Amino acid sequence: MTGAAPQAESTRNAGIVSRGVAAVIDLLVVLAVMGAAYLGLILATLAFSPRAFSFPAPSLVFSAFGLGAVAVLYLAGCWRVSGCTAGAVVMGLRVEGRTSPRLRVTLCLARALGCVLFPIGLAWVAVDGQRRSLQDIVIGSRVVYNRAP
């Protein structure tokens, strides 16, 4: 047999399908957090002025900013603490740095910002020979399978 030996499953870079499914799961988690925050706002409004109650109507700009902020904090926090988001756990993935199994806080925040502001960068995984997204290339991170070999 010629060529390089295949990488062990635990260190193989994750592909577009598993990363895409993990991203959708993470989006659902962020939307659930936003829904819970809106429900909390409704309950607080009802508690403080029950007679004049009306459903809060946050502006589109406020909602978009809030969604982005929650997504960045969720992604960066999960990557810093464990290297895994909820979607990554479900799909058996882990984010790691170039030289260490965990990213520094600044790199976590920069990667999360890149993922939220430029989500199409994930599509680069499909064409890159090393299965890296644009965010991985810029930050120096990689997403690997977190399963036992």
From TrEMBL:
Record bears the keyword Cell membrane: yes
InterPro entries the UniProt entry points to: Pra-immunoreactive (IPR051791), RDD (IPR010432)
TM region(s), chain numbering: 21-48, 60-93, 105-127
Tree of life domain: Bacteria
Cellular location(s): Cell membrane
Keywords from the UniProt entry: Cell membrane, Membrane, Transmembrane, Transmembrane helix
Pfam family, one: RDD
Topological category with respect to the lipid bilayer: Multi-pass membrane protein
Residues covered by the RDD domain: 14-139
Name the record gives this protein: RDD family protein
Organism expressing this protein natively: Mycolicibacterium komossense
